[in-house]
Design goal:
The protein has helices at residues 2-9, 102-114, 117-124, 128-138, 145-148, 191-199, 203-206, 218-227, 237-259, 266-269, 277-289, 291-308, 312-327, 332-343, 345-349, 351-354, 359-374, 381-392; strands at 15-21, 26-31, 37-38, 45-46, 49-52, 57-64, 67-73, 76-79, 86-88, 155-165, 168-177, 181-186, 209-214, 233-235. With 406 residues, the protein is of the alpha+beta class. The protein folds into three domains: 2-99, no CATH class; 145-236 and 357-397, Nucleotidyltransferase, domain 5; 237-354. A hairpin with a 4-residue loop joins strand 1 and strand 2 (26-31). It is elongated, with a radius of gyration of 30 Å. The two termini are 53 Å apart.
């Protein structure tokens, strides 16, 4: 019976004196069978027991059928035969002066990964402040990049931003290929911080990076080029088409204000092959009456053809044609768009070589938003970073030096 209880509670190497089951808790009185201990000062092994703690000490260990299980221990004190110092034995799975075992802390963090601080505290019978202190102590702001990427010969990094609070943004760094993993969260979106992070990457990680996928931010591209010379930059297809839809919609609103005629939005921003018959008729009317808006729409559809091209050469021919057409237009906004596409030409065409996008990074942001809603928001930036990493990464991987930069 004792063996079954010990196996259930993970105490196979302990001696169970007695188990006391109460309506609201389970008390397990335990001891250690070994008669020796290692001196923390000189490292020698000693068998000379000097004394034993007079009172039993209570340690939260686990939960069984919803009831907390507490260990009651009486650590022994030894006198070192070499340095003659008196020390208390170290019990496995217990830090000195800790009130909880490592097993209990791991279960608390697993519960916290799925709930808010208050929800996890109510489910485990602890307090939100206790869980917050545990999170800040156990989760080291990130996973070691060398360990996270050690099984991958090459990687493609994805860099994007998400909202911490309102317009206060933070940078998300992921591995988008060949395997998808969250790597780090940077506490703000300054270009200097991103460049600092990339420069501090270990040499073994820098050698594996074959591309970096970003959105259309000139500062980020320059930071990547300075920190990772020779690594190609890939313009994220989603953000390129999103920027195109934004420009088309802006041209529609300007034309609508000038002419005083209502111009429907959806036929312009929706993929042309997915239009209904009514929307197709509306698009044909727009092309007939509003030539400038139709020109913007044509550039947007040509950009989609760039990504649907079967080869880089075909994509380059389509992109060069639309850039030349846009730069020769009469509309100043269209000319400016053509200049932007010319600056990002190499990054746009790099998609056909690396087939990289930030789709996984956007999925990470969706899960982050869900966790923020469950937690009713965050005010502490450091706790926010560690809580998000806890939700994505296994606890065993959150023990390396952090990537939270201040």
């Amino acid at each position: 019976m004792d063996k079954g209880i010990a196996m259930l509670l993970g105490l196979q190497s302990w001696i169970l004196y007695r188990v006391h089951v109460q309506p609201d808790r389970i008390d397990v009185y335990t001891g250690r069978p070994r008669k020796e201990a290692r001196c923390p000062a000189c490292g020698s092994v000693n068998r000379s027991v000097y004394d034993r703690c007079r009172q039993w000490q209570q340690k939260l260990h686990t939960w069984c059928n919803g009831l907390p299980v507490f260990l009651w221990v009486r650590p022994r004190r030894f006198r070192c035969r070499d340095c003659r110092k008196v020390f208390t034995e170290r019990l496995p799975g217990l830090r000195p002066w800790a009130r909880r075992t490592e097993r209990a802390e791991a279960q608390l963090l697993e519960e916290l990964a799925r709930r808010s601080f208050r929800g996890a505290a109510e489910a485990t019978g602890t307090s939100p402040n206790t869980l917050r202190r545990l999170l800040l102590r156990r989760v080291k702001d990130g996973v070691g990049l060398e360990r996270a990427l050690q099984d991958l010969p090459e990687v493609v990094l994805g860099i994007d931003e998400h909202s911490f609070r309102g317009r206060d943004m933070m940078i998300t760094v992921t591995c988008v290929a060949p395997k998808r993993r969250l790597l780090a969260l940077l506490p703000h979106d300054r270009v200097r911080l991103l460049e600092q992070f990339l420069r501090k990457l270990p040499a073994s990680v820098r050698g594996k990076i074959r591309a970096v996928c970003i959105d259309l931010k000139e500062g980020w591209r320059r930071a990547v080029e300075r920190a990772l010379p020779g690594v190609p930059v890939v313009a994220d297809p989603f953000h390129v088409i999103q920027d195109a839809n934004r420009r088309v919609d802006e041209a529609r609103r300007v034309e609508q204000e000038v002419t005083g005629q209502r111009i429907p939005r959806w036929p312009l921003v929706k993929n042309e092959e997915n239009l209904t018959d009514q929307q197709a008729a509306q698009l044909a009317a727009i092309r007939k009456r509003h030539k400038n808006v139709a020109h913007f729409h044509w550039v947007k559809e040509q950009l989609r053809d760039v990504y649907r091209a079967s080869s880089r050469e075909e994509a380059a021919a389509i992109l060069d044609r639309l850039i030349l057409n846009a730069q020769e237009a009469e509309d100043a906004a269209l000319v400016q768009w053509g200049r932007t596409l010319r600056r990002w030409r190499t990054a746009i065409l790099a998609f056909h070589e690396h087939q990289a996008s930030n789709g996984y990074t956007e999925g990470v942001h969706t899960k982050i938003k869900l966790i923020k809603r469950l937690s009713y928001g965050f005010r502490n930036r450091e706790a926010y970073v560690r809580k998000m990493l806890l939700a994505f990464l296994p606890l065993a991987g959150l023990t390396a030096r952090p990537h939270f930069l201040t």
